[in-house]
Specification:
By secondary structure, the chain is of the alpha/beta class. The protein folds into 2 domains: 174 residues, Periplasmic binding protein-like II (D-Maltodextrin-Binding Protein, domain 2), CATH 3.40.190.10; 102 residues, D-Maltodextrin-Binding Protein, domain 2 (3-Layer(aba) Sandwich). The protein is 37% helix and 22% strand. It contains 12 helices and 16 strands. The strands form 4 sheets. Strands 1, 4, 5, 6, 7, 15 and 16 form a 7-stranded mixed sheet that branches. The protein has a 5-stranded mixed sheet with strand order 11-10-12-9-13. Strand 2 and strand 3 form a beta hairpin.
Amino acid sequence: MINKTRIYRLIGLVGIAMIVAACGGGSTEPTAEPMAIPTEIDDLRFATTEIPAGLPGNPLQMVIQPVQSELYVEPEVTQEPGVGEVLLPASSTQPELDLEEAILEYSNVTVDIVPVAKPVDALQALCGATDTVSAVWVDGVSFSAALAQNCGEPIYIVQRRIDGSFESGEGGLVLVSRQQNNPSLAGLNNGIFCRLGVDDFYSWLLPLMIFRANNINPSNFEAIVDYDSTEEMVDAVLSGECTGAGLSVFVYEEIVGDDTEAFAEQVSVAFNTPPIPYAVLMYPVEIQLGIRVALNEGLQELVEDDDANALLQLFLGQDRLRLVDRDDFAEYEAFLQTVGLDFAILGN
């Protein structure tokens, strides 16, 4: 006779054995698997963390074209990556070192001031392909080129005190002698246009933009004559020696003074431009948020200190800095649209 109790025990033991086997129990030898050897990329012992630009060990490059060029001698080709020509100090005192210390004091951001010779060098530092991160002060035209290339965000705009009010930029104008039958831009054709030099912004580069916007071809001028000073150039227009000339609005108003009616009888203001920004600080996207905030706050505190502000004035000529409002550039951008230049190509 079969003992049912023994059968039930046997079945139970078999079931338990199957469960244990399925769970990896018993004396079964474990299967050996190859151990993954970490590579240099996977192993955190070999990982490197790049120091953000603006911290000790990796200064944030701040590129500026100084307004006081007498501080520097002839430009030389720089070894700084991503910049064209830099300026050598005229004496052993380097004003950029003092400014770097002031910025560090007020913002805790480590910067390397790089003074450049031309606006295009500043634009190259902002928009060129480089591993060096640069905060860049650009002039009005370079600002437009940077926006067209989408390579920077405007942060601060320079303001200067003019006749008791703060101005963010300065407009330009073209004068035409009333000794011409047609004292307008069209009257410049076959006339003599006077300027301060081929590189001067208000007497030549800005008038070229005005001419383009108004279909005036400088090749139709009888001659283009260079003068040594603005006063001599304006006198030549008053006398009829020059048919026309370009200069900044504020400089013209200073020359005219109280003689508005006398000047109006001799010359015509044929064209006025909206204010051209003095200088705009632009950040590339590579600057980390914490560095941006610290530098923004530090620069604002710096210009409120008379001594520190004087250091920055050597480079920017500012009386104060103001955070950018995009409406600041509405009139200027509308003028540029009439010029019809592709500023993205211009920047390159």
